Amino acid sequence: MAAITAPHNPISATDFANEIRTELKYTQGVTPKEATVDDVYVAAATAVRKHLVDSWETTKQDMVNGNTKAVGYLSAEFLMGRQLQNALLNAGLTDQFDAAVKELGYDPKDVIDAEYEPGLGNGGLGRLAACFIDSLASLGVPAFGYGIQYQYGIFKQKFDEDGKQIETPDYWLLKENPWGHTDYNRQVHVSFGGKVEGTKWVPAWSVRAIPVDYMVPGYKSGRVNTLRLWTAKAEDELDLLTFNKSEYTKAVANQIQAETITKILYPEDSTKVGKQLRLEQQYFFVAASIQDAIRTFYPGQDKPDLTTFPQKICFQLNDTHPVIGIAELMRVLLDDYGYDWDTAWDITSHTFNYTCHTLLPEALEQWPVSLISELLPRHMQIINEIDRRFVEELKGLTSDEEKIDRMRIISTDKEPKVRMAYLATAAGQHVNGVAELHSELLKDVTLKDFSDLFPQKFTNVTNGVTPRRFVKIANPRMSDLITEGLGTDAWISDLEMLKGLVPLADDPEFVKKFAEVKKANKRDFAAFAKRKYGFDVDPNTMFNSMIKRLHEYKRQALKILSVISTYANIKSGKINPDDLVPRTVFFGAKAAPGYYLAKQTIQLINNVSRVINNDPAVKGKLAVYFPWNYNIELAENLIPATDLDEQISQAGKEASGTGNMKFALNGALTVGTLDGANVEIRNLVGAENFFLFGMNVDEVTDLYAKGYDTKGLSHDYYESDPDLKQAIDLVADGTFSDGDKDTYKDLVNDWLTKDYFMTLADFRSYMDIQSKIEETYRDEQKWARMAVLNVANSGYFSSDRSIEDYLERVWMTGPMPAHRA
Ligand SMILES: *Cc1c(COP(=O)(O)O)cnc(C)c1O
């Protein structure tokens, strides 16, 4: 039995209450009487942090001194969620905390609620990074997460009176942040611009990169890793000479330029300056991280032997955002440490691995050569040389000139671009997709030329989610029942143990308890939704959720059209509402600020919600809610309460999905296409416990070949399906826009003329599966049994298993990392 992370000598609730009092006094400077709930939160956070410090220190020392290889997880996003409950769990202090804050006169829930959720990520990719660093720590793998401390994370979403999305800045640091330690003594410098003289880079300007360190405590591993997020500051904050000439704004121009780099996540990049800012961000954090890794692993050495670098650390590139790091490591080795090209390349190409997260060509970043040349002239020189040598290498492998041209890192179009995915694939030791189907499609389509010539580079690691946050913490009732059923809580760090629940699916007593847990979770969510959004949710209905970024390929449009169709058929008398399973549909989704059709879809959903929820004809039968600002908190509350989960992307477009995993692990059944990890979920939980519909990848490919999107074939589907026609006509005729026919004009027009993601083509199949879903749901026992089997067979989707796979397939080129202390 592994030791809990901390404290090594467990303390009592009274002791912990005293520690909180001490922090109130010495950190917050308030008496328990003066303290607000925010003070108690900060004091409790500070107290629990202290319990983790010893493990943090040993982990850091062992990482440097031990003969182990560390992982540097480079990611532009870390969507961490709130920290307090997770820290308490991993410090073994949950019960003490509950009792201690009660002793101090507070409700533990209120104290946990006082934490402001940082939004330093956009969706699945950022949450994956957070799950992975949790699992790395829990498995005892020495690791750093490296990213950016954005001052404003992803925007905060609101809806206006018309149901339109409004974006406001999310100033998460307005409240005290007790988790991040800003370490001014460990700053590094990052340079930009200027020119190259021969091969010597003479930069034009530089900024200070200051680390903000977060502890990443493992669960029962004795390990606490570090998440290091960089923040940018000016070299000279204030130009006093200028200031004293009363030119106040000009005097802080440096400060503004520097701090802009870490101001927000994903600045709008349709303009040249926007693009430049993104590239500045990417270079800023990887350059700082590479310097940091060298000083960490070769402390105090002026002339370190960096040929051992790949044995010290390997960098995992989470998508293309950090890929400029490849050119940067080459530059550091060549220019700062004087290695020759071959040695530098040998080190670099053994250091990086690349995770590809998409199949959408537009999501693979390409930076104009002109932009890189301006911002990072020396790096452009190096990339040119990498490209030249790569082409030479290709010539030795194939005589197919066209193929070679297609594979060039620098495209040959009129405005040449650096294809970051190609750079990562050429230089990285391994390239992985994030679900089996996705990895196959990467090899067969997106990176086919590369996989033909370098098949050994390609592998798959199916994503996962951390069972600590998304089961144990999010769903305490179900967790207790699982522990009762298995007779142990060891499943929390060994999720395949959930298999032990399979026989219990045939135990009516257990299944009944399981169904009761879901009902209680639904009541909890209804209370949460009332408190937080003012919604009157009926917990006695089926909870049907679709929460994810808003994107056409994910097909929120398909879901809302089906809702509209059902509503219309009730209104017209075609459906007797008493024959329907009463259902509440939840949407949660942010749309990228510049993504017009996605924003129209949001507006449509909001207005369908308004119309339906106010129509007495469907009261108690059908309701639609769209809680705004989808974030981890909403996920943690809604997922355990959900009966039916929507994973309805067009086949071949969702790389993996991790929402699907969270739902299955919390006993929701999935309606989904054969896409991303759905395929593996369905295989594991059993086809009979999954509601499959829609076209598969081959059928989608065939339909494109027939000209679906280019010849306007969607119109045929519209004409030939009266339900579909009726639903779309209602959108077009102003039913959901107070009679205005223009509001959704572009959305409707897109459906009828292009419909690239084949929403209309899959509509009938989607409606048909709903009947089967309703029939199944009516048999409560049967539904609950299927839900138990989903939980029991989803242990594979623990991010612990993903990390084990990375260790085996991607990172294991050097000495074994020490598994657990
Ligand atoms: C899990 C998660 C996601 C990813 O959801 P998908 O359905 O896989 O796209 C996005 N956002 C948040 C807040 C999440 O927790």
From TrEMBL:
Keyword Protein transport: no
Cofactor field: pyridoxal 5'-phosphate
Gene3D superfamilies noted in UniProt: Glycogen Phosphorylase B
Glycosyltransferase as UniProt keyword: yes
EC annotation from Swiss-Prot or TrEMBL: 2.4.1.1
Lineage top rank: taxon: Bacteria
Catalyzed reactions: [(1->4)-alpha-D-glucosyl](n) + phosphate = [(1->4)-alpha-D-glucosyl](n-1) + alpha-D-glucose 1-phosphate
A Gene Ontology biological process term: glycogen catabolic process
GO MF, one annotated term: pyridoxal phosphate binding
N6-(pyridoxal phosphate)lysine: modified positions: K662
SUPFAM superfamilies: UDP-Glycosyltransferase/glycogen phosphorylase
Function summary: Allosteric enzyme that catalyzes the rate-limiting step in glycogen catabolism, the phosphorolytic cleavage of glycogen to produce glucose-1-phosphate, and plays a central role in maintaining cellular and organismal glucose homeostasis. Phosphorylase is an important allosteric enzyme in carbohydrate metabolism. Enzymes from different sources differ in their regulatory mechanisms and in their natural substrates. However, all known phosphorylases share catalytic and structural properties.
Family stated for the protein in its record: Belongs to the glycogen phosphorylase family.
Protein name stated in the entry: Alpha-1,4 glucan phosphorylase
Organism (species): Pseudoscardovia suis
